[in-house]
Amino acid sequence: MIEDALNEARERMEGAVEALKTDLAGIRTGRATPALLQGIKVEYYGTPTPLNQLATISVPEPQMLLIRPFDPSSIQAVERAILKSELGLTPSSDGRMIRLIIPRLTEERRQELARLVGRRVEEARVAVRNVRRDVLEDLRSFEKEKLISEDDMYRAKDRLQELTDEFVERVGEIGEHKEQEIMEV
Question: 41-61, pLDDT tens digit by residue?
Answer without folding.
Answer: 888 888 888 888 888 888 888
